[in-house]
Structure prediction request, 163 residues.
Amino acid sequence: MPSTKPAGQTPVFETAAATGPALQELSVGDVARRSGVAVSTLHFYESRGLIASARTAGNQRRYPRAVLRRVAVIKVAQRMGVPLAEIAQALSALPPGELPSQADWAALSAQWRQQLDQRIEGLTQLRDQLDGCIGCGCLSLKACPLRNGEDCLAQAGPGPHFR
Prediction:
């Protein structure tokens, strides 16, 4: 018997078959709803090897429930500024289809913490230099530490150069 759902939503059928292994698998729409990530993003993650799915006889994607934790790890790492290639490399060391453990997360976060600390240090230095630059107003291509730190553009020869 279908459950009562608001208009516009697909009814859910509860059967005895829905209590077995099928409950452990999620459709791409289920993962999108539960993780807050667009279906197209999940397809992209899968194409990059960040997550994996199995296919049904009807060629529909089915994900293990553990994919929700992997997507959460991906989103946190992206928010910290970790490139997807580095996230994929880190996740490749984890057992596929299983939840990352606390020890797994500790190893990943220790690796990314160092990168984050370096990024914070660089941004803090940039912020402090920006205050001085706004004060002088020169934005000189020869002397500005923000635009031409340590006169590195002079080594590129004459003409406009971009970093």
In short: The radius of gyration is 24 Å. The chain has a mean pLDDT of 76. The beta strands are 25-27, 54-55, 61-64.
